[in-house]
Design goal:
heterodimer, A: 985 residues, alpha/beta, Beta-Lactamase, 7 domains, rod-shaped, B: 426 residues, D-Maltodextrin-Binding Protein, domain 2, 2 domains, six-stranded mixed β-sheet, 46% helix, globular
């Protein structure tokens, strides 16, 4: 770990150093480029300046020469005119024309005659004073040609004058002649309009005063030296030096700044007096040509640098972009991979800033694992506290975590609850304290350990279960050893005794009865063990069909009532409310469950005890379902609290002095529980030792399409009378009959029933049927029936409703005029079933039930297919005792052949073992059914097998068999089945 | 034949008109009368007005019934009186747009033939003359000359001369700017009068232009000189000739700018130096001189003559003779010199000698004589509003609008004002 960080730090250092070096390198490059540029441009500027000023000097030297020539030319012109005849002719009429022509040719403005007093006269005759300043004395006194600024006729002009021969023109006496130029004319003549008109050109005195200006449009300067003093950046010393230079007649250029522009002040002496030719030109104008070259150079260089720079920057940016993109892509790949990874695992990760505990990253699977939105967790990691199961703990103990040394970690476990589903899960939290680029971070890894814990828990439980199972099986083996050995011991013992006492018929019967009892017990033990084994192996399936709840209850009553009666126990079936009568479910399994529970209740309830079987409907999860709650309540020995917890475990039997007297495998409740589970129901138990137990089963059944009995009642009965001392039962019957359209009247005692029946009879509107409770206070059902019959005759059917076995009173009741009996509870379907035969006498008589005492097997011939010789011998022996002539086939094929060879009617029935060599019973049956024998389709075939489960029965039926007998053969079952099959035949 | 008819018709009209005119002029000169004189209260309260009234009453025995109205009510009240036919013998009013409501043609006597007319300075006479050349009234008021007043001391110190034409003025402005001065003090926050100086030559030199614009036949956009002026102002502002802070310069700041020497020139009138110019600045009134205003509308620049209050005679009055006598009394040099004794004003009368006239004006007398114009734009252009002009120009200076848009905006403002005033043709 430390090595990795060393390398990482080194990498960071190298990166930082590389960046610094790059910045330093770029700075050096920039500074070098700027320095070279500055030096280059300084050199170029100096060079340009020098070339510019040289150029300027040359231009103005030319101007100066032009000016000198201009002055001389003007004086020369004047001199030539002075001596010409044109001028001498005082009244020459052609003089104006002459001057006009000369003007046009030479470009001057006007011609003047000047008198000795300073007055002038123009060619047109205009007169005025020619103020020529100091030049006047030079002209008049020194007789020198002069040049001066003057204002003849209000015009600001430059005048060139020469002394002339005294003369007169049109009466005006003159001593000098002059011609004048306006500034514009001067500029035009001197061609000083250089530098795009930006140059100011003056002829000045050495004191700076303006002699003449060549500026177009006028002149605003009176003294340029003064102007430079006020407007330029030249100092007093520089100005003084400049004036000295002028005084010395020097030529030079001064650079100064006027306003916002640098100016070149060029001065040159002119060839007239000490006048100075002065020009002020903006530096930019002077160097315009050069500057344009410089600008182009600069522009080109700048463009090159810009281009190069742009290329470099573009390359850097592209590289940076490429790197950044690559980094981003890598980051995205990593993040995506990490997201996918984290989404596929049940661990999530949080990165926190160690300073402020701000969440930098959290893996997205937190939402799946804890139901916390990522955004919420990013805002504040303390949101985890909301999920913590325990309220009193701090989920992330900051104080403790801050003590984790750098590169260290700490782990702890915590239970969290999913915010969405409420599911609780255990997490192992490991907090790592790291430093990433000098920034301290905490990385929290939360690993879901729920499966581990659950696995451990399951392993523990499995271990416990295995230990318990082992213990139970040990107990079972011990018990079984005892339980099996006991009947076996009896069978073996009594068999030995039987052999010894074979000559004593009484002993033989006694021993045979005891052997039979022990055998049955042993058989039930084996059945239970096999049943349990099959359920546990998951091979049990349900045989779902429509069944009648009343029938079921009736059958239960038939089965349980004798057992309860044998122990003098009070057994009652109570149906509360009006549960549906037709249900879809596995009636056989339901029967098994309820018989188990009730048989247990009877078994563990002492004599004289009380057992209640309550049935009621409870709210169902769906409209097409009905959920029934079955309570089996006894006041027997009860169970300890501990045993209640494992009463449904296999091989569990509470060890007590009482239970030890009760035979059992300890599998009954386990089988019951498994069957309930198989049917999707719930079984529970409440018990208290010494007070009794209540087993409760809740099962849901599909409701079949309702069959309406209203039509039947409409045809048969319109009103009925019910007499029961329990008002609830009366109301319940009325409620149940409401949908049938039958008007139910009820009374709660026998006499009232008699009164009602008589009254109705007298009114000519007998009840359609009268239903009497058997046990009523005062007058019971039989007595009441007797009185009714004596009063109204035999026409109205009278039924007795009872929860007791009516076998004992049946004869007396029928004698009293009772037509039929009904078991409580009252069901409409049972009611119809009971009274329908009364209304349809003929139908009832056409299908009389065969007498149970009749031996239907006498004289019949059975084909027995059985591979086991011993079993075959026993079966054949037993059947022989019933008068059956048996022929044996040792496998299926043989049975097929024997049947095929037989004459029609030769065999009355085939008993087919299922598991046989050569050909099993199913295949043999199929071949028989598909054979050409005339009785192939009709010969009754009954399976005879140790496979007694529902699917075995179904498989037998599917193969074409007509019935099923479980091994070992129970003769009663054989008689019943044979009776049924042969009767049908 | 045709000329004969015309002549006879003219004679007939003259014959018919003469008796009517003669009604007022046949009054007995010796009978004291009371003349009604209507004017603005503050105008009538001027010392030289009181003086001339007193002199007249004393000298003639006639009385003056002074009818005065508060300044704010004057125009309305006077117009109401005129509409009711209650026109005073003498009416005092400036010759500006507001005078139009008093029906000058039918109410006032034209004074072109009075003896004292020749004593009027050209500027004063021109001011009191209408577009048809008829002299409406006698100017009797403080006169002034508006022009470009410049700091000659600064110019001298820079070896510069005042400009004589627009080109030189531009050179001068640039030379001053180069020397670090603000060439022109343009008080954008209060110089509402300045643009009118540029427009005076446009309309004074071309009366037909004035007529057309007042008939709404043309606008400023149709007059190239207006666009020239606006463009020049835009360029001047852009070149920094108004300085950097001219947006915040108001009326009260001009004195400081000029007396401190920060600015060298401004467009103002002479009497301002005696009424509003700071006495304690670096420069005094003696440092200043006058040259024409150059706003690129007149090559040689322009001066604007003063706005003068004039006294007009009711030509329908029974005391017309006495009224004219009163005007003649006022125009007598002896009398007006008494009245204006010690008053700072440019001459309205050539014979004015007792008034105080600034050297700036007297030094520039020749230039003024050549280039002075009557205040024309502000007083005679229908819908002209000095404030609107400044508003449009300031939008230009703020670069919110272009030169042409500025001219169009000036037109819009002018037309809007004219409409507000209910002027015919708008």
């Amino acid at each position: 770990m430390s090595g990795y960080y060393y390398i990482e730090e080194q990498g960071i250092f190298m990166k930082k150093f590389g960046k610094l070096f790059l910045i330093f390198f770029i700075c050096i490059l920039c500074i070098s480029a700027v320095s070279i540029g500055v030096i280059y441009f300084r050199f170029i500027s100096e060079r340009i300046y020098k070339d510019s000023t040289d150029n300027l000097e040359e231009i103005y030297s030319q101007v100066n020469r032009s000016f000198g020539m201009f002055v001389e030319r003007n004086w020369g012109l004047l001199e030539s005119w002075d001596k010409s005849s044109v001028l001498l002719d005082e009244n020459a009429s052609n003089f104006p024309d002459f001057i006009t022509k000369e003007k046009e040719y030479w470009g001057f403005s006007d011609f003047y005659f000047i008198s000795s007093d300073g007055s002038f006269m123009s060619v047109e005759g205009t007169k005025g004073n020619m103020d020529m300043g100091e030049e006047w004395s030079e002209l008049t006194e020194n007789k020198e040609p002069v040049m001066s600024e003057a204002y003849p006729e209000g015009k600001d002009v430059t005048v060139f004058a020469i002394p002339a021969e005294h003369g007169a023109h049109n009466g005006f006496e003159y001593d000098a002649i002059a011609l004048s130029y306006t500034n514009a004319d001067m500029a035009s003549s001197l061609d000083v309009d250089a530098f795009s008109g930006k140059a100011k050109c003056f002829i000045i005195n050495t004191d700076g005063s303006i002699i003449l200006s060549t500026q177009t449009g006028g002149n605003i300067y009176s003294n340029y030296l003064v102007y430079l003093k006020g407007a330029s950046d030249l100092s007093e010393e520089e100005l003084s030096a400049l004036q000295n230079e002028w005084a010395k007649g020097s030529t030079g250029i001064v650079r100064c700044r006027i306003g916002d522009e640098d100016h070149c002040i060029l001065y040159q002496p002119v060839s007239y007096r000490d006048y100075i030719l002065l020009s002020s030109v903006p530096q930019n104008a002077v160097s315009a040509g050069f500057l344009s070259v410089q600008k182009i150079t600069v522009d080109v260089l700048a463009a090159i640098f810009l281009l190069l720079g742009s290329v470099v920057i573009a390359l850097l940016l592209m590289r940076g972009h490429s790197l950044s993109r690559k980094s981003k892509l890598e980051l995205q790949y990593r993040e995506r991979m990490f997201d996918v990874l984290s989404n596929s695992v049940d661990d999530f990760f949080v990165m926190l800033d160690a300073e402020n505990w701000q969440v930098d990253y959290i893996s997205p699977n937190i939402e799946r694992l804890l139901g916390i939105p990522v955004a919420d967790a990013l805002k504040d990691i303390r949101v985890l506290e909301k999920c913590a199961v325990a309220d009193d703990d701090i989920v992330i103990p900051k104080d403790e975590l801050e003590n984790i040394p750098l590169q260290g970690s700490r782990s702890w476990e915590y239970e969290y609850m999913h915010q969405g589903t409420g599911e609780r899960r255990w997490y192992r939290m490991t907090m790592y304290h790291l430093s990433i680029q000098d920034v301290r971070k905490y990385i929290l890894v939360m690993s879901d350990r729920t499966l581990d814990l659950q696995m451990n828990q399951k392993l523990r439980e499995a271990l416990n279960a295995a230990q318990s199972a082992n213990e139970a099986k040990s107990n079972f083996l011990s018990n079984m050893s005892h339980d099996i050995r006991t009947p076996m011991n009896a069978i073996v013992g009594f068999s030995m005794l039987l052999e010894k006492e074979a000559e004593n018929p009484d002993k033989v019967r006694e021993y045979t009865r005891k052997i039979t009892a022990s055998s049955h017990h042993l058989l039930s033990l084996i059945n239970d063990v096999l049943d349990m084994s099959k359920i546990e192996s998951g091979k049990t399936s349900l045989n779902v069909d429509i069944f009648s709840l009343p029938e079921l209850l009736d059958e239960l009553n038939i089965i349980i009532m004798p057992q309860a009666k044998a122990k003098k126990q009070q057994f009652r079936i109570n149906v509360q409310g009006a549960p549906p009568e037709q249900l879809v479910g596995d009636k056989l399994r339901l029967n098994q469950i309820l018989i188990n529970l009730m048989a247990n209740a009877i078994k563990y309830t002492p004599e004289g005890g009380k057992i209640d079987f309550n049935v009621r409907e409870i709210p169902s999860p769906a409209p097409q379902y009905v959920t029934l709650r079955f309570d089996v309540q006894d006041n027997g020995i009860g169970m300890s609290e501990e045993f209640c917890k494992k009463v449904f475990n296999p091989f569990s039997r509470e060890i007590s002095s009482v239970t030890n007297k009760v035979q059992g495998t300890g599998l009954g409740m386990a089988i019951t529980k498994n069957l309930v589970d198989l049917m999707g129901g719930i079984i529970s138990v409440e018990s208290k030792q010494g007070e009794g137990s209540t087993f409760t089963v809740e099962l849901s059944f599909v409701l079949p399409d309702q069959t309406h009995s209203e039509e039947w009642f409409a045809r048969k009965i319109s009103r009925m009378l019910v007499a029961d001392d329990e008002l609830d039962i009366c109301l319940n019957i009325k409620e149940l009959m409401r949908d049938t359209g039958v008007d139910v009247s009820f009374v709660t005692d026998g006499q009232s029933a008699v009164d009602s029946a008589v009254r109705a009879h007298n009114e000519g509107s007998d009840f359609g049927v009268i239903l009497l409770d058997w046990k009523m206070p005062g007058m019971d059902g039989v007595q009441t029936a007797r009185k009714i019959r004596s009063a109204i005759g035999e026409d109205v059917p009278i039924l007795v409703l009872t929860s007791h076995d009516w076998e004992d009173i049946e004869a007396e009741a029928r004698k009293a005029g009772i037509n039929a009996f009904m078991s409580k509870p009252f069901f409409v379907s049972s009611f119809i079933q009971t009274i329908a035969p009364l209304f349809e006498e003929e139908e009832a008589k056409s299908e009389p039930e065969p007498s149970a005492s009749e031996n239907i097997m006498q004289g019949k011939r059975f084909l027995i297919a059985e591979d086991n010789e011993l079993n075959a011998e026993i079966l054949m022996e037993i059947l022989s005792m019933e008068g059956v002539d048996c022929e044996l086939a040792s496998n299926g094929l043989e049975a097929v052949e024997m049947f095929s060879r037989s004459e029609p009617g030769y065999y009355d029935l085939i008993l087919m073992d299922v598991q046989m060599p050569v050909m099993n019973g199913y295949e043999a049956t199929r071949q028989i059914r598909s054979s050409a024998h005339p009785e192939a389709r009709t010969i009754p075939i009954a399976a005879m097998t140790a496979n007694t489960f529902a699917e075995d029965v179904r498989n037998a039926m599917d193969a074409g068999m007509d019935g099923h007998l479980a091994k070992p053969i129970d003769m009663n079952a054989v008689r019943e089945l044979v009776g049924k099959l042969l009767g049908r035949k | 034949m045709k000329n004969k008819k015309l002549f006879l018709t003219a004679v007939l009209i003259l014959a018919l008109a003469m008796p009517a005119c003669g009604v007022g002029r046949t009054e007995n000169a010796n009978t004291p009368v009371t003349l009604t004189l209507m004017g603005k209260k503050s105008d009538l309260a001027k010392s030289y007005m009181q003086s001339i009234f007193d002199q007249y009453e004393t000298a003639t025995g006639n009385k003056l019934d002074i009818i005065s109205y508060e300044d704010s009510e004057f125009e309305t009240e006077a117009a109401a009186k005129f509409n009711a036919g209650d026109v005073p013998d003498i009416f005092m009013h400036f010759n500006n747009e507001d005078l139009n409501r008093f029906d000058t043609e039918n109410n006032f006597y034209y004074l072109n033939n009075e003896k004292w007319v020749s004593d009027l300075t050209d500027g004063a006479r021109d001011y009191c003359t209408n577009a048809d050349g008829e002299l409406l009234g006698l100017p009797f008021w403080e006169n002034s000359v508006s022009g470009c007043y410049y700091n000659k001391t600064i110019l001298d110190s820079l070896g510069l001369k005042p400009a004589e034409n627009q080109t030189e003025f531009d050179m001068l402005c640039q030379a001053l700017a180069d020397a670090g001065y603000t060439p022109i003090c343009w008080a954008a926050d209060g110089c509402s009068w300045m643009p009118q100086f540029g427009l005076d030559p446009v309309f004074a030199d071309a009366p037909e232009m004035l007529e057309k614009i007042n008939k709404n036949e043309i606008g400023y956009s149709d007059i190239p000189e207006v666009t020239n002026m606006v463009r020049w102002l835009s360029d001047a502002a852009g070149k920094g000739w108004f300085g950097d802070d001219y947006f915040h310069i108001g009326w009260s700041d001009i004195s400081d700018e000029m007396s401190s020497g920060r600015a060298v020139m401004t467009f103002i009138w002479d009497t301002w130096f005696y009424t509003d110019f700071a006495k304690d600045g670096k420069y005094s009134v003696d440092d200043f001189a006058l040259m024409p205003v150059f706003l690129n509308t007149a090559e040689n620049g322009t001066y604007e003559g003063g706005n003068l209050n004039m006294m007009m005679a009711n030509k329908n009055s029974g005391h017309l003779d006495k009224a004219l006598e009163f005007l003649s009394f006022c125009a007598d040099s002896k009398n007006y010199n008494i009245a204006f004794d010690g008053i700072s004003t440019v001459n309205c009368f050539k014979g004015q000698t007792t008034n105080i006239q600034s050297e700036m004006v007297t030094d520039a007398a020749d230039s003024i004589a050549k280039n002075e114009r009557v205040s024309t734009a502000a007083s005679r252009v229908t819908g002209y509003s000095a404030e609107d002009m400044v508003s449009a120009l300031n939008s230009l200076f703020h670069k919110e609008i272009s030169v042409n848009e500025c001219v169009r905006l000036m037109d819009e403002y002018r037309v809007t004002q004219a409409k507000k005033q209910g002027m015919e043709g708008f």
